[in-house]
Design a protein that fits this description.
Layout lengths: L6 E4 L5 H12 L3 E6 L2 H13 L3 E6 L5 H14 L5 E4 L15 H29 L2 E6 L3 H4 L5 H21 L4 E8 L12 H8 L10 H12 L10 E4 L7
Parallel strand pairs: 1-2, 1-4, 2-3, 4-5, 5-6, 6-7
Helix pairs in contact: 1-2, 1-8, 3-4, 4-6
Amino acid sequence: MSTARRVALVTGAGRGLGAEICRALANDGWAVAVNDLTEPAAASVAAAIRADGGTAEAFGADVTDEVAVTDMVARITDTLGVVTALVANASGPQPPILVEDLLWADVLRHLEFFAKSPLLLTQAVLPSMKAAGTGRIVHIGSDLFERGDAGWSGYMAGKGAMLGLTRGWARELGIHGITVNLVAPGWIPVERHGALSPDVESEWRAQQGVQRMGVPADVAAAVAFLASDRAGFITGERLAVNGGHHLG
């Protein structure tokens, strides 16, 4: 990147995949804006990065709210500099809901996080990326959109919309030196999943080519690559990080 300081914004980064993505980007030399709904939720991640010698600050904001997003990006710019990499990772509750019980409000809740939020965030950072002549936008999707599962149609609709935005924006923004890609994790157990039973883990591994459970660092490595100069000729792509689960 040509900017004096490379600044990455990662949303929904107070724990789980988002926190690991922040750590990977910081290790690659990015100054990281760690976002979560509230600033205290992101503060420990930012503090840990600084303790390891990296640069990071916490920014609390509801990334589905236009005013909050605009304000957050302004605060990031004042504190760290202009954002040249955006990782849209934030999500809301994800309970499985069968079609006979699925409400339009349930679908809209997913679209708020997986379509509205990426749109607001991209529009907020786009002027600076265009001015810099470079930028990286990475959406965190899900391999569930491709393989499907009962009870997850609302969630898959939201993730499918995110893939559509990825491909459309890649066509629009490449001329400005901005790439747009999507990382589609498989089931990557994080804090909210709790401890896995040996039977569950064994059954899941049997459906993959790579015989181990995925970890957040696997997803973070893919994001860090797509955010790097090495990925400057890759755009509009969906990269599945699931150990080959989609090949079954």
